[in-house]
């Protein structure tokens, strides 16, 4: 009898591996983006330490979870840490890293409150040492139709929720990003935005094992431009749902308001699941650009995690 290999639902087939010839051209892409040979490359060594999250005492990337380790090439770390949406600093992706260099991530306090029995105030060391960290490789899909594959370090959000003991009437979880205009020049440049940045999930989405609190990236403490020192990662939703630099988590009975939905509910609805059949009002979502190679690939429903989370959305037929 032949051996049957059962691969996990998030496994990426060999056909999805970037061809070697394309991979070796990544330096051409980096050069075109200004990462090599000038532009942003100037001064990068001096910023290397300051753009990482705190020399976080006690940070450990943890072991890579084999259930979240697709056999594909990771996105180029240089691109993933230089090509960032973080409007509090800049609307220009390649400027965020530089402008975030003066952002303070230590000390840090994350407040967990609202409809719960055990409100929490967690410092950076609490987040790094009070949970069992592991590394997971996830697909990351931006609403702008580009994508990456990156290794996050952190722990399931469900573990933090369990410590807070939400009440039965808590149906949603609201998240808030830190607001420091003196360190975040983009806030001042966008005065009409409803700052601070806010996001939210249904409780069942927040408790799903895939939903992750991230404190690291590529085996290192989370860089500031990627949301240091603590962010959310919800891999089946568009990237803006994975809120960065969180200072508050609140349990609520009502659906929370979110920054992007407040600005344009037609383009950025609360659910915001990756769905190639539902176009953005200004572009198709049927395919995506792999950001470090430029390759165009088909977009998968729920970003390839449908086998795990489609049951949360029974009205949508896969």
Task: Describe the fold and architecture.
With 318 residues, the protein is an alpha+beta fold. It has one domain: Oxidoreductase, molybdopterin-binding domain (Sulfite Oxidase, Chain A, domain 2). 18% of the residues lie in helices and 20% in strands. Strands 3, 4, 7, 8, 9, 11 and 12 form a seven-stranded mixed β-sheet that branches. Strands 2-1-10-5-6 form a five-stranded mixed β-sheet. Strand 3 and strand 4 form a beta hairpin. The relative contact order is 0.17. The N terminus is likely disordered.
For the structure shown, list the relevant keywords:
alpha+beta, 11 helices, 18% helix, disordered N terminus, 7-stranded mixed sheet, Sulfite Oxidase, Chain A, domain 2
| Name of the top-level CATH class | Alpha Beta
Number of continuous helical runs: 11
> The CATH topology, please?
Sulfite Oxidase, Chain A, domain 2
| Radius of gyration (Å) | 19 Å
- Globular, elongated, flat, extended or rod-shaped: what is the shape? globular
Number of strands: 12
Distance between the termini: 33 Å
Low-confidence segments, ≥5 residues, pLDDT <50?
A: 1-25, 35-51
Architecture, CATH level 2? Alpha-Beta Complex
Q: How many domains is the backbone divided into?
A: 1
Mean pLDDT: 87
Tell me the CATH superfamily: Oxidoreductase, molybdopterin-binding domain
